[in-house]
Write a structure and sequence with these properties.
The structure holds two protein chains of two kinds. By secondary structure, chain A is mainly beta. In chain A, about 0% of the residues lie in helices and about 50% in strands. In chain A, the strands form two sheets. In chain A, strands 2, 4, 5, 6, 9, 10 and 11 form a seven-stranded mixed β-sheet that branches. Chain A has a four-stranded antiparallel β-sheet with strand order 1-3-8-7, with no helix packed on it. In chain A, strand 5 and strand 6 form a beta hairpin. By secondary structure, chain B is an all-beta fold. Chain B is globular, with a radius of gyration of 14 Å. The chains are: A mainly beta, B mainly beta.
């Protein structure tokens, strides 16, 4: 069964550094998402992306965050200047329609900011 | 806006016993409801979803859930659990439409099945 793949599985970075988290969604999917889960807290929606633009974003998704689909297969989340509170598990997800098809999640990237 | 409350953070149960994981939600609009499971070091996998129609929804691995609009609940049940059901379970809602993929999650329930 096709899967959403995320790389790396664990990323350690220093505060203030830029980090790019990478995702390869399922190939025929059209809708893409990023979620995050801070340790001990709920999984939170960050952003949805369709037709090469952001469809919706949460309050968390401020100017430090950006998303891109650079080459038609990858879907990336960039954090421009990481803060300690950005440490979390970041999940990518994709779906092939907006209607009733389920979101398929990747295994996540654990980001640790030191 | 929507919110989801999972009433139990941890549920221990013996193998072959029944289990119910509770989920309550609040929303000012009609919602779609989901249960996801997360096994260690893996992503979130959809167990089942309620979009419309029959309020009793059957999912994978023998799980089912019942949508109760008057009680704003969507409890997950399994009549007989296996060791392999040990995982974290998340209830989630979305408003549908253009916000279909914007899921609001509960805090998760860790189900531990003991032999």
């Amino acid at each position: 069964e096709p899967e959403v793949t995320q790389t790396p599985s664990h990323q350690v970075t220093q505060m203030g550094q830029e980090v790019i988290l990478r995702c390869v969604p399922i190939s025929n999917h059209l809708y893409f998402y990023w979620y995050r889960q801070i340790l001990g807290q709920k999984v939170e929606f960050l952003v949805s992306f369709y037709n090469n633009e952001i469809s919706e974003k949460s309050e968390i998704f401020d100017d430090q965050f950006s998303v891109e689909r650079p080459d038609g297969s990858n879907f990336t989340l960039k954090i421009r200047s990481t803060k300690l509170e950005d440490s979390a598990m970041y999940f990518c997800a994709s779906s092939n329609t907006r209607g009733n098809s389920p979101l398929h999640f990747g295994n996540g990237t654990r980001l640790t900011v030191t | 806006a929507q919110s989801v409350t999972q009433l139990d953070s941890q549920v221990p149960v013996f193998e072959e016993a029944p289990v119910e994981l509770r989920c309550n939600y609040s929303s000012s609009v009609s919602v779609y409801l989901f249960w996801y499971v997360q096994y260690p070091n893996q992503g979130l996998q959809l167990l089942l979803k309620y979009l419309s129609g029959s309020t009793l929804v059957k999912g994978i691995n023998g799980f089912e859930a019942e949508f109760n609009k008057s009680q704003t609940s969507f409890h997950l049940r399994k009549p007989s659990v296996h060791i392999s059901d040990t995982a974290e379970y998340f209830c989630a809602v979305s408003a549908g439409g253009t916000s279909y993929g914007k899921l609001t999650f509960g805090q998760g329930t860790i189900l531990t099945v003991h032999p």
